[in-house]
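Q: What changes when nicotinamide-adenine-dinucleotide is included in the input?
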Amino acid sequence: MKLTRREFGVLTAGAAAFAQDNGRKIGYCAVGLGRISNIFLSAVKLSSQARMVALVSGYRDKAEKIAEDHGIAAKNIYSYDNFDSIADNPEIDAVYIGLPNSMHAEYTIRAAHAGKHVLCEKPMAVSVADCQAMIDACRKANKKLMIGYRIQYEPVHAQALELIRSGQLGAIQTMDGAYGFNISPRGATIKGVNRPEFRINAALAGGGPMMDVGIYALNAFRYLMGEEPAELTASTSVIDKDGRFKDIEENMVWTMKFPSGAVASCATTYGAGLGPFFRIVGSKGTLISEPSWGYDGIRMTVRLQRQPPAEVTNPERHPAQFVREADHFAECILQNKEPKTPGEEGMRDMKCIAELYRAAGRKG
Ligand code: NAD
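A: The predicted holo structure follows.
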């Protein structure tokens, strides 16, 4: 069950062939030049379907250095103030939103108004109302909206989905999964510009680790089951009184009960390294994955009744997941297809997160 590099290549070959036949590459504009946008920029360099054509930043010097690294014309560097003038730039087909969570809605809506497609990072936004407004704006402008759930495009996870949906794992009974890390307040320094960590600022992050890495277990169990959780319970805590968790949770545990009866228990933290891992137990077998949601090196052990355990691994190296994501959205634009992870998928997670925070006692 070990997939080779060649087999993984086959998964994307169709998409690549289309772009080559068509001869046109989708032009992306990165909004926000922090950690994730830098990864996305390096991924688009390897893309057969897309190219990076523009940048949006509050720091002109930083943007110029990044533009030089990626062969982007200086005239295609925008600020947040003149962002709306991307409407006049036909080189830009789509924007990639790598901003703090609470800014996703505003820049998605402004991009749609400017006539651009939107690939927005997870979590989609910080409220269900914002998610709905983003979907409405893109629909009204007749532009596509995709949420950057890179894992839904990853081959080991595609195998997990296949094993569950084909019935090989039997009836799913229980799931557990977790993801966390010990957060530093210092934030990223990119090309000499430092920003304090937005993830511990509730106004920018909309919550704590649940919004950031907790969402991986939530999203995975929802899409692997193909059901929406019917019952949710949650609890949060703060242990480290060192100023990092003044208005966000440090730890969160939650449970989900699906209509089929399958039950999930999940955890996330900003106080310690945790996973990422998941375990899915069915009546005919078990899937165990660790690490499960990293950028590369994902591993999964498959234990099916009356069969020896099988290891599924992915030999691809970072930033392959982001290349696949960039290619998928470009292909959706080129072929006028709906993305596999559209705004509606992001909003379904946000509805669960809002419910989980309510269950944990958060007001508002
Ligand atoms: P980051 O802090 O490294 O970058 C954020 C960028 O936004 C910076 O360039 C910053 O200058 C800019 N910005 C603009 N206005 C700002 C403001 N008022 N305050 C703070 N920053 C401002 O963050 P990141 O780690 O790149 O995360 C950005 C988004 O990407 C988040 O939504 C995060 O959840 C998502 N993300 C996704 C993945 C993934 O694997 N899919 C991984 C990391 C981050």
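Observations recorded in class: The longest helix spans residues 5-22.
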